[in-house]
Inverse folding.
């Protein structure tokens, strides 16, 4: 993906959508999660920063934590996490 | 648009893409601007918050200002602004 290429991603029948981009060779996405509960798998480690709204997340083998806008959490690579969202929640996902 | 409906928007031949959402009756989008210079028109007043990267913006009748990640600016309704981006820049646009 070149610096000028943006990529639209859609998951779970459009309930999670994001725009992928790359800067200085680092990949990231900004997206929105519609109300519901979903499981995300990770390949690379990720940092999820909540931009607008709030969500609860549970890493594999861990317990639920609540993340309001302005907070962030990191997830190990080759792992995954559950998210639970009551109102649409916007996030920045950085691949570490 | 219901609380569970996300909308993918694409402008300028895919060089600006965003995901629109609504929470508590307020509309917002998160998106990414690829390198280049673009003009955006506004209907409602907007607050643009820079999430990742940086951009320069010039409101109609105003002058250029620089906005790095973590900063924000507001644009009047029924107006517009130019943006100039050197590397992909992610933003949150809130309709006021």
């Amino acid at each position: 993906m070149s610096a000028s290429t943006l990529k639209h991603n859609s998951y779970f029948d459009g309930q999670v959508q994001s725009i992928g981009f790359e800067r200085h060779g680092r990949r990231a996405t900004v997206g929105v999660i519609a109300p519901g509960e979903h499981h995300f798998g990770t390949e690379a480690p990720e940092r999820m920063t909540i931009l607008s709204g709030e969500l609860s997340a549970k890493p594999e083998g861990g317990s639920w934590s609540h993340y309001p806008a302005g907070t962030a959490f990191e997830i190990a690579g080759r792992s995954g996490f559950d998210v639970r969202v009551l109102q649409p929640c916007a996030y920045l996902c950085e691949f570490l």
Observations:
- Chain A has one domain: 7-95.
- The mean pLDDT of chain A is 95.
- Chain A has no helices and ten strands.
- The CA atoms of residues 59 and 92 of chain A lie 17 Å apart.
